[in-house]
């Protein structure tokens, strides 16, 4: 199989200056720019000919099956080939194509991001490509068009624009009916450190996927996974940074009075507490997020009026700034000697 099938000798601009993959996959516009007429392209793509049409207006310049890389480029070329009049989907020089307003999403994007539970690219019948909602495109062949009102900022993976993990997850989940598969995807997203649970839940909420029972079940597992991972990081912070051992996962009450709230770590002799912020809104209008934050704030104000210092930590801060967070807690513990004694509270296991 010849992966370097040349253009017709009549072409005034040979393609040897282009990199290998960009010589093998080209749009009709770029072929025309190199002097190849539509009639000649059709002739090259005849049955048994050296070329083949992969997608409307996108051609593979060798007779064998496309590689995964060729299919990805072909899908992107198809998605951008008419994005604005007179702008070719490929540059005339040797640089890689500039894929404006299109990016790989869904399962293919997750595979490119390094997920282990997604199929290899060769096993995917279609590749999802994310485009603006008003683009006049239809799904065809190996390209499945996914539309959005607002494109996220793509990440470059192996030189290709790829949707961020939360958006790619939402687009993948939208096509999946199996709860076990959805749960494995969401769990790897958190366990593998690809993104925060709250970011995933926001994307699933915006995609209106939280009315599907198998997705709700998977999200519940995701949130449990995210909290367990954050708690592990909190244990590590105390252990590795030499903080005194707290009592873990407790509820506080006033003697004979109301419940004050739960805490992830508490140093009774210092009246210092740590609370993990693992909020993940489940409403599209952020009302649930605001409600949760108000609850955090009310609890913190109540405890601090009683003389208890509350250190608020997010999983992201623990993951990327554990030493700094340990210093914050240590400072609060040291400052306890200069404060008035806190009110007496009852500490109960949670």
Tag the structure with descriptive keywords.
single chain, 350 residues, alpha+beta, Endonuclease, Chain A, five-stranded mixed sheet, three-stranded antiparallel sheet, 12 helices, 17% strand, disordered N terminus
Describe the structure.
The protein is an alpha+beta fold and 350 residues long. Among the domains are: 1-97, no CATH class; 230-349, Endonuclease, Chain A, CATH 3.40.960. The protein contains twelve helices and 13 strands. It has helices at residues 20-24, 28-33, 38-44, 68-80, 106-112, 165-173, 179-191, 197-206, 213-240, 287-305, 315-320, 322-335, and strands at residues 25-27, 52-55, 58-60, 103-105, 127-132, 143-148, 155-157, 160-162, 247-253, 259-267, 272-276, 309-313, 346-349. Helix 6 packs across helix 8 and helix 7 runs parallel beside helix 9.
């Amino acid at each position: 199989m010849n992966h370097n099938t040349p253009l017709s000798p009549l072409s005034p601009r040979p393609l040897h200056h282009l990199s290998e993959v960009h010589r093998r996959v080209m749009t009709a516009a770029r072929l025309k720019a190199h002097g190849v007429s539509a009639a000649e392209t059709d002739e090259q793509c005849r049955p048994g000919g050296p070329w083949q049409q992969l997608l409307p207006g996108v051609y593979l310049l060798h007779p064998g099956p496309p590689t995964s890389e060729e299919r990805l480029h072909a899908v992107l070329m198809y998605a951008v080939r008419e994005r604005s009049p007179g702008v070719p989907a490929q540059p005339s020089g040797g640089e890689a194509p500039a894929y404006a307003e299109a990016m790989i999403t869904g399962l293919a994007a997750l595979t490119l991001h390094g997920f282990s539970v997604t199929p290899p690219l060769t096993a995917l019948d279609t590749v999802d490509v994310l485009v603006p909602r008003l683009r006049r495109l239809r799904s065809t062949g190996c390209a499945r068009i996914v539309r959005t009102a607002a494109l996220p900022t793509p990440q470059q993976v192996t030189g290709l624009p790829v949707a961020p993990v939360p958006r790619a997850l939402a687009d993948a989940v939208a096509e999946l009916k199996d709860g076990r598969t959805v749960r494995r995807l969401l769990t790897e997203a958190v366990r593998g450190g690809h993104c925060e649970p709250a970011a995933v839940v926001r994307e699933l909420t915006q995609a209106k996927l939280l009315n599907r029972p198998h997705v709700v079940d998977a999200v519940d597992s995701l949130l449990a996974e995210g909290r367990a991972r954050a708690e592990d990081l909190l244990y590590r912070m105390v252990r590795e940074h030499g903080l005194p051992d707290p009592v873990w996962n407790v509820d506080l009450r006033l003697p004979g009075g109301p419940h004050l709230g739960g805490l992830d770590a508490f140093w009774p002799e210092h009246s210092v507490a740590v609370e993990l912020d693992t909020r993940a809104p489940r409403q599209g209008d952020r009302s649930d997020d605001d409600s949760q934050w108000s609850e955090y704030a009310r609890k913190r104000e109540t405890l601090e009026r009683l003389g208890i210092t509350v250190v608020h930590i997010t999983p992201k801060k623990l993951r990327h700034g554990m030493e700094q967070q340990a210093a914050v807690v240590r400072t609060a513990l040291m400052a306890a000697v200069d404060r008035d004694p806190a009110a007496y509270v009852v500490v109960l296991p949670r």
